[in-house]
Amino acid sequence: MTDLTVADPATALASRRHINSDLRAQRVRSAWVFLAPTLLVLALVAGWPLVRTIYFSLTNASLTNLAGAEFIGFDNYLTWITLKSGRTIYRGLLADPAWWNAVWNTLKFTLISVSVETVLGLVVALVLNAHFPGRGLVRAAILIPWAIPTIVSAKMWAWMLNDQFGILNDILLGLGLIGQKVAWTANPDTAMVAVLIVDVWKTTPFMALLILAGLQMVPGDIYEAAKIDGIHPVKVFWRLTLPLIRPALMVAVIFRMLDALRIFDLIYVLTPNNAQTKTMSVLARENLFDFDKFAYGAAASTMLFLIIAGITVLYMWFGRVNFEGER
Amino acid sequence: MTMLLRTLTFCAALGAAELAAAAELSLAANTTGKNVNFMREQLDLFEKRTGHKVSLVTMPPSSSEQFSQYRLWLAAGNKDVDVYQTDVIWAPQLADQFIDLTDAAKDVVGDHFQSIIRSQTVNGKLVALPIFTDAPALYYRKDLLEKYGKTPPKTWSELAATAMEIQEKERAAGQTDLWGFVFQANAYEGLTCNALEWIKSSGGGQIVEPDGTISVNNERAAAAIEGAKAWIGTIAPQGVLAYQEEEARGVWQTGNAVFMRNWPYAYALGNGEDSAVKGRFDVMPLPTASAGEEPSSTLGGWNLAVSKYSDDQEAAIELVKFLASREVQKQRAVQLSQLPTIAALYDDPDVAAAQPFMPNWKPIFESAVPRPSAATKVKYNEVSSKFWSAVHNTLSGNGTAAENLELLEIELTELKGDSW
């Protein structure tokens, strides 16, 4: 008996390896079993609609006749005909000035709103991270704008921005900052500003919350060390705080960016149909449901998806973000 | 004993029969002003008489939003809504999704104005029954016009001059929030109505003519829109560029406007107890470009259609016929100042007593100009959207009327393709 066990260590090792790989395979199997429901739900609620949208964008589907859709290739995206005179006319989404206007509006909105929200959110988070009496109350209070449903806050702001009865005009007039009542949502020059004001008001708390979570991960002894070394607080912020909360900041920015790129509800309530604020989502909805151009709207939705995916990949590449929080 | 048993069985059978006949219906309707309460009262009456239950699904005030919600529900074959309240322009676009009411309504169609019944008939199919019609009016402040010795304006330029003068003098007298004229210039269906009136009353056609010709790019149309542009910031607040009906009514009813273009529903509300202009205003037909021309009001109005996906079509038809009946239309006219679609009601003494303006309204909406929804069929929404965008761009200073209309003509031609 003893002979057998000692005699062949190689076999024993092999059999242990065998057990190991068995165990491994079993673990992988059970991992798949546990993941399957999640994957299934994801495929059903995210994958299937996406595939359907992409499919419809390649057809001539109309909302009243979805079943009778015929495959027409990429004609919704770009197609051209050459006239007898030799002039070529381009048609389709990629040749549609309204689409590019919407893309530009969306990018402009995203860039400005996310930048302002990041800076303000950081300031708010730094304040909330400091110790002062009543901090819990202030932390709760600052979340209120984020807790109100967008439709409600957009309607509320629509009245506050109203040219005749709005409180904003009343205050600004009272302070003497404007000479006459400004039609915030109607004027093409201020429509985007109005939308930005409301969005910043609403989502700064969200940014602040995510950054605050990052700030609380920073160990306090680092600051004590910095204090003992007599380092100026501004330098502490740039050299210590910012690099340490960078992963949290990057994640917060990416969340906000994804949200901002598909902005719909706020603009739909505040300035619907206004060419200066029409975003990709608003344009897609208009084609899908208002106009008899379901397939065209599906093409716009698909492009919206591709643009968001592309920007996210680029952002993660350049930012070298990884979600484990390391660089 | 057997007798008692028999009676009991009979009663039970009767109860069961009644239970089977009672349907639960849903009605989707818009909710401007006092519409909701009125509708609920009428539905309660209907419930009491028939034993059916009706729930009211309230829709947003903007008709464009309402339409896309309907389209979505109908495309999904939604069974939850049985009866839809539809705008006069929707019949050609939604005809396939509603049942034919020709047979069910053949005893009553004769009472309604034939032009309205025709607008709801698509390829011989009666898509919806009208419950009230609409044609906008010019509301004016009697007291202010009298104070400055002015007569109600017949032309657009007269309106602008009167509005300017009263606005300046009243502001100098301390009424700093007063404006001369409010209307609807938000980029939505209502702007199509407003601009169509300016253009049509200037002899500039009706965007797309009944035969399908695109007529909008002409000098008269451009001049009419430029004329309207001159109002903004002078006699009308710049905010009109974001106003729909209710925003305009808000300025008007708080006593802050000399003139307002709006639908008849604002008449009853303006004379309500909480109104600052109660008893101080009157209505008249919209002005024209030059004196003596026919005024042009956009034909509006609402109808009821039965969804083909409804499980209780019989009961739904019953409901539609009830709400379109003479009795309900009369109440509607008296309480909500909404114009009946039944000709005889215009001679009804009760209606005339409650709404003195109404008998004069008959010729106005009989000559009302329809929006080009019949000519442009399923593409109407896109035509309307392109039109209101061109007008909104012009009004907000983004290009001249001539430039924008030229561009609009190209877009519409492309949209039309071979035919509408």
Overall, the morphology of chain B is: globular
Q: Which stretches of chain B are poorly predicted, pLDDT < 50 over at least 5 residues?
A: 13-20
From the helix content, strand content and strand pairing of chain B, which structural class follows?
alpha/beta
- Report the β-strand fraction of chain A as a percent range: under 5%
Kindly report the average pLDDT value of chain B: 89
In total, the number of strands of chain B is 11
The largest chain-to-chain contact, stated as pair and per-chain residue counts, equals:
A-B, 28 and 39 residues
Give a nutshell description of this structure.
The complex is a heterodimer of chains A (327) and B (420). By secondary structure, chain A is mostly helical. Chain A has helices spanning 2-7, 9-57, 97-129, 135-142, 144-147, 150-160, 167-175, 191-217, 220-228, 233-261, 265-270, 280-290, 294-319; strands at 79-82, 88-91.
Topology:
The complex is a heterodimer of chains A (327) and B (420).
Chain A: H1 2-7, H2 9-57, E1 79-82, E2 88-91, H3 97-129, H4 135-142, H5 144-147, H6 150-160, H7 167-175, H8 191-217, H9 220-228, H10 233-261, H11 265-270, H12 280-290, H13 294-319
Antiparallel strand pairs in A: 1-2
Helix pairs in contact in A: 2-13, 3-8, 3-10, 8-10, 10-13, 12-13
Chain B: H1 2-21, E1 24-30, H2 35-50, E2 53-59, H3 63-75, E3 83-87, H4 91-94, H5 114-119, E4 121-122, E5 125-126, E6 129-134, E7 137-141, H6 142-147, H7 156-172, E8 179-182, H8 189-200, H9 219-231, H10 245-253, E9 257-262, H11 265-270, E10 281-284, E11 300-306, H12 313-323, H13 326-336, H14 349-354, H15 361-366, H16 373-376, H17 380-395, H18 401-416
Parallel strand pairs in B: 1-2, 1-3, 8-9
Antiparallel strand pairs in B: 3-11, 4-5, 6-11, 7-9, 7-10
